């Protein structure tokens, strides 16, 4: 996923400097895939962390990023695909910028029970402040943004010590609540969490009648690590190819870059179904079966619904 995300940045932001950040334990045990990564990034930054699971070490670094990276930068989760130039974001006045979690407008819809429990455990009450998704974050590199990173890291350490959970978004919310900072909410376009279309209804359509959440977004964010096993997007197909072939298919990367939607599609009939997907307020089970490749199951479900 990292390699594909990196390739998307190369294709859409040719002047970007790409840094891969890893902890010292992961660096020491990475196999030959590291050689491929080294050739695809400009810099590998290895940081020492306390011992712990890979998820612990990952979040330990993530919440500290602003303290050891100088200047403005963008943090990207590995399950992201960048499709457009990102320079314009830094034309805004902010210390840190990001998008609403789950691309929902109401804070009650942006946060799940697990995160809410962690927030209560660390003594942070839920307010009308938006709950931010930490998968795509823009750091202006200001002194304030550096100080904020220190606060975020300390809040995460406290959160982990109390809950024994590695999730970093509750600590991010707590840090924003406690630290006075110019945090800019960006449009969903910059962190389009496309798989939320399986869970929530959307009523935000463009002039063509297509859901804005996935149509021609700047960054698609796939939540590829959750318990959503069906392969429903072109991103996941390409990841699976990489696991087998090891080499990036630049032609396919350009093809995904130019597509207006992320959903799996290999022929004209698929495109007709995807057109229905993009015009639906929510992706129902039959449509999901089809775009996951189970066309027979989708047809059976459709027939049963009709007769």
Offer a concise description of the structure.
This protein has helices at residues 2-12, 24-29, 33-40, 54-62, 65-68, 107-110, 113-121, 143-163, 169-178, 234-245, 250-258, 268-279, 285-291, 295-306, and strands at residues 19-23, 43-47, 73-76, 80-82, 96-100, 132-139, 183-185, 192-193, 219-221. With 307 residues, the protein is α/β, with parallel strands linked by helices.
Write the layout of secondary structure elements.
Elements: H1 2-12, E1 19-23, H2 24-29, H3 33-40, E2 43-47, H4 54-62, H5 65-68, E3 73-76, E4 80-82, E5 96-100, H6 107-110, H7 113-121, E6 132-139, H8 143-163, H9 169-178, E7 183-185, E8 192-193, E9 219-221, H10 234-245, H11 250-258, H12 268-279, H13 285-291, H14 295-306
Parallel strand pairs: 1-2, 5-7, 8-9
Antiparallel strand pairs: 3-6, 4-9, 5-6
Defining traits:
about 300 residues, alpha/beta, four-stranded mixed sheet, three-stranded mixed sheet
Strands ordered across the widest β-sheet: 3-6-5-7
What Rg do the Cα atoms give? 20 Å
Overall 3D shape:
globular
Instruction: List unreliable stretches of 5+ residues.
Output: none
Please estimate the helix content. Answer: 40-55%
């Amino acid at each position: 996923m990292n390699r594909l995300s990196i390739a998307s940045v190369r294709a859409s932001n040719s002047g970007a400097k790409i840094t891969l950040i890893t902890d010292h334990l992961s660096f020491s045990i990475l196999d030959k895939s590291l050689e491929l990564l080294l050739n695809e990034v400009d810099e590998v930054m290895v940081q020492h962390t306390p011992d712990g699971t890979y998820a612990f070490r990952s979040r330990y670094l993530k919440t500290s990023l602003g303290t050891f990276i100088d200047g403005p930068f963008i943090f990207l989760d590995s399950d992201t695909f960048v499709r457009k130039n990102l320079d314009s974001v830094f034309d805004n006045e902010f210390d840190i910028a990001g998008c609403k979690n789950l691309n929902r407008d109401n804070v009650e819809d942006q946060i799940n029970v697990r995160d809410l429990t962690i927030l209560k455990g660390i003594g942070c009450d839920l307010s009308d402040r938006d709950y931010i998704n930490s998968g795509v974050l823009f750091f202006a590199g200001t002194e304030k943004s550096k100080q904020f990173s220190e606060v975020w890291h300390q809040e995460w350490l406290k959160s982990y010590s109390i809950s024994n959970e590695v999730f970093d978004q509750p600590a991010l919310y707590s840090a924003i609540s406690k630290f006075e900072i110019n945090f800019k909410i960006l449009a969903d376009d910059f962190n389009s969490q496309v798989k939320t279309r399986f869970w929530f209804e959307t009523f935000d359509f463009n002039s063509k009648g297509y859901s804005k959440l996935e149509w021609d977004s700047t960054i698609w964010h796939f939540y590829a690590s959750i318990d959503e096993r069906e392969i429903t997007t072109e991103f996941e197909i390409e990841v699976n190819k990489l696991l087998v072939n090891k080499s990036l298919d630049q032609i396919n990367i350009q093809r995904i870059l130019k597509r207006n939607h992320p959903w799996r599609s290999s022929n004209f009939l698929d495109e007709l179904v995807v057109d229905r997907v993009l015009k639906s307020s929510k992706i129902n089970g039959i449509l999901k079966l089809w775009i996951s490749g189970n066309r027979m199951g989708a047809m059976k479900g459709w027939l049963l619904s009709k007769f």
